[in-house]
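Lecture 7 notes: from sequence to structure.
We start with the chain below.
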Amino acid sequence: MSRISKLWAFLTKPEVYWRFFSLLLAVIFWLLATGDGTLGETERTITLEVQVQNLPADLVLVDPPENVRVRIRGLSPLVNRGESSVSASINLAGAVEGTETYSVEVDGALGINIVSVIPQWVSVYTEDVAEAVFPVTLAFLGIDRNRMMMGIRPSPAVITVRGPRSILEEVDHVVAYLGIDPELNLETSFQVQALDAQGRSLYGLEVDPAEVRIIEVVDNGEE
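Predicted structure tokens for the same chain:
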């Protein structure tokens, strides 16, 4: 007896046939339940954030890509369950500093067809990562300013700031605000902020270390 004949004989056994029939009914009922009572094909437009992949380590993303509108099609149950799995991305492997345009790749779950992506191409702006070293300035808030005469200084005294070159160039100084009142606690860590010449905080920068402690220097100059 051939393999096909043996397979057919097996599938047509009553106990096997009814099990497959029951399974098929269960699948149909599940599809109807997840498809709002219909197995018909449907289309839907969703808005997705574009994920950036393979950004070179020496670059930082300054201007991220815009969102895209993706039109998807498939059986209603599959679209309802698989919509959240649809993702959009661009591949920045080999990118160089500046504005570049990349094709948007969209992936979806099995059974979901991608009908259209608008826009199909998006632009991003990247800059080289730069870094600079700055001394930490202590700013006293709610503390007797006479404590400044006691030789209080930050530890570490200098920190490294990294980020997009254009933003790093705006850094005028870095400051740690000491706001302990009435006693200055030497065990407390204070966050460091990068400011421009007008005293405004700058964002998109990495401060290392992000916090400093304070040290009181004794009269003989030893810590």
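Points to note: The chain is about 20% helix and 45% strand. Residues 41-119 form a domain with the RNA Polymerase Alpha Subunit; Chain A, domain 2 fold (CATH 2.170.120.30).
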